[in-house]
Amino acid sequence: MSAEVEFPKKEPHLRALKLSGHVGFDSLPDQLVNKSVQNGFVFNVMCIGETGLGKSTLMDTLFNTSFESTPSSHTLPHVKLKAHTYELQESNVRLKLTICDTVGYGDQINKDDSFKAVVDYIDAQFEAYLQEELKIKRSLISCHDSRIHACLYFICPTGHGLKSLDLVCMKKLDSKVNIIPIIAKADTISKQELQRFKSKIMQELFNNGVQIYQFPTDDETVSETNSAMNDHVPFAVVGSTEFIKVGNKLIRARQYPWGTVQVENESHCDFVKLREMIIRTNMEDMREKTHSKHYELYRQRRLEEMGFSDVDSENKPISFQQTFEAKRSNHLAELQAKEEEVRQMFVQRVKEKEAELKESEKDLHAKFEKLKRDHADEKRKLEESRKKLEEDFLEFTRRKQQLATTHHTLTLGKSKKK
Ligand SMILES: Nc1nc2c(ncn2[C@@H]2O[C@H](COP(=O)(O)OP(=O)(O)O)[C@@H](O)[C@H]2O)c(=O)[nH]1
Ligand SMILES: [Mg+2]
């Protein structure tokens, strides 16, 4: 049997058939639900915003729990991304929630690079997923998926508009993550100002081409609510960890000398809209978009960087295997050329060294010969002076004897005369 399988290029003509009785595949959606519930869900949210804007408080409010975060100081030299993962359960649905905080964001005097740490973090999570996907033995289901599904961008409630850091950061992130801009501490801004502030923010985002996450309107069960909610963005939210008693119910609120802000009161702020949109209606859509849009883009860019493409230089379709094999043979050829080059270089170096050695041997030899000659000269000179000294000595002895003889004769002659 041939190993090659022919895949139909176009969908074959489909015929609709009627079933004469119940078969049972109408339970497929239930099977899917059961399986998903069994596996549990993962949701990763990133909070970007300056220290003290109420990020931690809002997370506690959104998930109606206390994540016990420690307030950070304003003096950090760099922005640090800190992620904490929690296991939550509601009815029989388990949620593995990761909250990623941008500690020190916007606290430095030079804020130029504040967004860089965030971009790097998001890319690193994509890269980890890609590396797992490229393994031979993959464990994509059991390995913790840390890709960020939603990014809540906390805007300072100045009433003036966005800061340049906000625009730069959102612009850098809009192709990597689902951005949901929110106006933090919305209780500090008046109703009239808020409307102006919201439209100013949206105008600035539009003018700078920043793509924020749009609640999907293609599913008709939610299209109406979602499209209405898209018009309320950016949500102006209030968070609180305090509760007050209204009737016999405890509700989250912030108390001021002039009154009380109820977090879940829709005439006080947009908190309920935010919770409805990101948790109750569109959490799955954000998870799906992260995979099919943002991760897909990252994966495509990385594979192209590695030299892979779906078409060759003549725009003809090329398979992954063909590209890989072409790259492999290219690589081997390069390796061989490199090896040859290194070998040639080695031979050349050996030759040079040999010549150098020969040259120095010749030098040494010449030096040795010269020393030998000098030594012989010295020896000869010494010999000559020794001979001369001997001769002088002999002459001296001879003269001394002569002198002694003459003296003796003279003395003898004198004594005879007496
Ligand atoms: N006025 C007001 N204050 C808030 C709000 N949310 C939080 N805060 C307060 O702001 C301070 C900093 O909040 P925190 O959540 O630690 O900010 P983070 O540094 O962004 O995590 C705390 O004193 C909170 O009580 C809000 O919606 N409105
Ligand atoms: Mg905090």
TrEMBL record:
Keywords: Coiled coil, GTP-binding, Nucleotide-binding. CDD domains: CDC_Septin. This is Septin. The keyword Transit peptide does not apply. Gene3D superfamilies: P-loop containing nucleotide triphosphate hydrolases. It comes from Glossina palpalis gambiensis. Residues 321-399 form a coiled coil. One of its GO terms (molecular function) is GTP binding.
